Amino acid sequence: MKKPYLITAALLLLAATSQSQDVIRQQSCSNEFITKQVDSLKGLYSKDGFVLLKEASIAMESEFEMPVIVPLTQGSWYQFVFIGEYSSRLYEVRMYDWNEKQVVFQQKKWGDVDGNVISYSYIPQFSEFHMMKPVQVNKQKKKNLCGYVMLFKKAAPSNADTIPHP
Asked: How far is CA 118 from CA 54, 58, 104, 155, in A?
């Protein structure tokens, strides 16, 4: 009589472990050079009337995309920034809309003037989620690369910013 319960329990345990999957979790990282760039860019975009909506440091692996999903509002002006480790040789960002259509692609190389920073403006045609996929290629370090993403939104002009018409 005890055997059917043991068999059932073993089958349930086996089924539960076979259904479990490894989950990719975003982990933060720290890089002093990137931190200085982040502070500088925050000040620059703030002066241009942008408000920081989201930011995150992300631990990355060379040649692997790190998907970042963000809700965007139709007609709003956004500024996206990705900063990779200075020692990487290639940086790319692709952005996709809800229908998985690529709407942005940018690539930078180590020798470029602002090589480890990719920044672009975007005004969505629809209010929906978008996915940004930054990647960096680093021959020295394959794992534990640091990256940083920021999402800014252009602030609506206040009444004091508008010029009254006579």
From this structure: 16, 15, 11, 21
Q: In the β-sheet with 102-109, what is the strand arrangement from edge to edge?
A: 68-72, 128-137, 90-96, 102-109
Q: Is the pTM of this model over 0.85?
A: no
Count of CB atoms within 10 A of residue 97's CB? 17
Query: In the block, which residue shows the tokens 């920034």?
Result: 81
Taking the domains of the chain in order of start, what are their residue ranges? 27-155
pLDDT tens, 32-62? 999 999 999 999 999 999 999 999 999 999 9
State percent of the chain over pLDDT 90.
Answer: 64
Contact by Cβ (8 Å): 68, 148: no
105 touches 65 (CB < 8 A) = no
Classified as helix, coil or strand, 56 is strand
Cβ atoms of 147 and 84 closer than 8 Å: yes
Sign of CA dihedral 24, 27, 32, 37: positive
Backbone angles phi, psi at 17, to 5 degrees: -75, -30
Q: Which residue intervals of 20-151 are DSSP H helices? A: 32-47
* CATH domain 27-155 topology: Jelly Rolls (2.60.120)
